[in-house]
What does this fold into?
Amino acid sequence: MRLSELKIGEKAIVVKVLGRGAFRKRIIEMGFVRGQEVIAELNAPLRDPIKFKIMDYEVSLRRSEANLIEVVTEEEATSVITPTSHGTTAEESTHARAAEMRGKTINIALVGNPNCGKTSLFNIASGANEHVGNYSGVTVDAKAGHFDYKGYRINIFDLPGTYSLSTYTPEELYVRRYLNNEMPDVIINVVVASNIERNLYLTTELIDMDYSMVVALNMYDELEKSGTKLNYKLLGDMIGVPMIPTVSRSGKGIDELFDTVIDVYERRNKSVRHVHVNYGPAIEAAVNEIKEKLRTSKTALKYSPRYLALKMLEGDNEVMSMLSDNENFEELKSISSKLKAQIEDALHEDIEQAIANEKYGFISGALQETMQQGAEDSRNITRVIDSLVTNKVVGIPIFILLMFLMFEATFVLGSYPMEWIETGITLLSSWLHSIMTPGPLKDLLIDGILGGVGGVIVFLPNILILYLFISLMEDSGYMARAAFIMDKAMHKIGLHGKSFIPLVMGFGCNVPAIMATRTIESRSSRLITILINPFISCSARLPVYILFIGTFFPKHVGWAFLILYVAGIAVAFITARLLRRFYFKEDETPFVMELPPYRIPTIKATCRHMWSKAEQYLRKMGGIILVASVIVWALSYYPRPDIEGELTPQQATEQQANSYMGHIGRAISPILEPLGFNWKITIALISGTAAKELIVSTLGVLYAGGEEAPEALSAKLTQPNPATGSPDFTPLIAASFLIFVSLYVPCIASITAVAKEAGSWKWGVFSILYNTFVAWLCAFIVFQIGSIFI
Ligand code: GDP
Ligand code: MG
It folds into this structure.
């Protein structure tokens, strides 16, 4: 608990002091160090200040100050530590040990530019499995992990990447609020060693905020390879923050990093001090004037008055609202805006620019003394490859070729393991057929579970191959180039290249893709990118495509795939244009498109990525798909007719048509009849709204019965329906069906993501209605026009 909550006469032991460096130092110097005993002498509710007794003398602290001191009371101590059985521990020492234990928990936040290796560091330190990618915006939420190290419990948080903390993007706001609310004990600022000048910008902002910090000079391997020499010890001493070289890909330097974190936490590190970046006489004078008025502010416990003054001069909204409950807020506001105008007049540039320039000046000064640039060979390789893949003429053809290769490989390479799994399931199913006595249990196992889950599980290899390609493109740095070359095309639909990465990610799964839009600064561009994302065919739709293309268009596999994907992309682009034209007024924020150096993807990261996808897929099989298959089976199996023994195919069809499912399907199917779909197809499409794989598993269940010899689903789809005498699917119906599936209502997870990221359920509902309408229209056109010719 916090010291401010301590009741009169109650005793507690100090665990740690939170807040910014200078505040912490002052409080610690007053005697509030770990293990010290404090007693509350005067603590009336709402009374300020509070009086405490520590080391036999009295101190009074403001309530807001006491609120930043973590303590353990005697009462709490027993819940922290259960007394050990050997030997009786005195009450006193249980209490002290509890404080010691609590004090040995260090909360660490990883802060750094996008793509600097935070997640790699997080994974290697905590043994987690988060997704790394070589472009900005992979991590969009804080991920928590923990591990034990040298007697400490380390809680580590991976935050989204940011270039600065000036509240322009959702990530920056997120990171700022996180640091402000959670108050981590130590920040690890991850810095790309080979691009240190740019990366240290964020470091200077953190220095201004006066956080306890260690810099991880990550990708040190690349710096060494380029021949650059960096005296990082001296640099760390100069800026008052210890620096440790790391290679978070291999784990080099990670132990030293956490040793240093512990040293900083325990205030043993000699490099640590609060350095002031000098902003020049005009700004400094203004800062001092505002600073004086901030001395008594509560906010100054978390941030230095200097930082708050700078941000007030910049007119930073977040800081303004943090200070708004100060009694002299109005005065502060008018002074700072007056000073801001004066400075801008004197310097002939706007103040944010001036502050940024001074920061860069500080950095280049520090690097001048500590760094010797080597020949940049790795940059050269990057330049050579870039001149090819971002080339005006061949760039886009190369991209299309890669995409085509990706889908071709997904189908062709995937078809071998797919056949093995298919054979396995057929064998299992005939074996069950031969050993089990007829009855509902047998039908449930063979038709319900094997028909449903088995029908979908065969596509696991295809999905893994697709993810292999996406993962390689992300990790190597190619994805960022793809975004770069698509920038111009994206401008045509009122978006920019940055929107392209979420779209390509959508080939894997729309949910993370929709979350990845958080890097897009402009709100309207972000909304449009979110809304068009579900039109990008995700891997869950792949089973439907493979099954139907393989069954009905085996001679034109590549083309059929291409048409489906392109149709989705075309609809997405048309939608974007329409939204831009009729709903969102034009707003273009210029932005930097990062081109990170190429990196050879590691086998480990790639395997990790694929394994986590496989795991996800298998979980889905065992969960929603299993349950849904059983439900679909039961609804189509009952009620049973009064017939002894096994049903003839004719009877089975009749039974199914009269089942509960048959009734539901026929009630709805008039809407879909103009597209050529019967009631079974309707049911499959409805269950597909929960997850797209369910389309195949539902068809698997509905088309399972009636056959003597079990065979693959594709064969069953082409057989004539005993009731009508012709097959339920013709190539034309299959085409209309494929188009419909590629466009219609997003799955529940995507709808939720759309609503959450767009900030309103209105957009979730829009997605449902609009996408289904578009799908219906396209399938209608395909089927009706096709019917004229066939
Ligand atoms: P984040 O955006 O900061 O979370 O960065 P990631 O952890 O996703 O890493 C970005 C890319 O840099 C990935 O391709 C990593 O494999 C690569 N990477 C991370 N750390 C290192 C390192 O120390 N050395 C090298 N050469 N590459 C690294
Ligand atoms: Mg990350």
In short: The chain has 34 helices and 13 strands. The two ends are 77 Å apart (CA to CA).
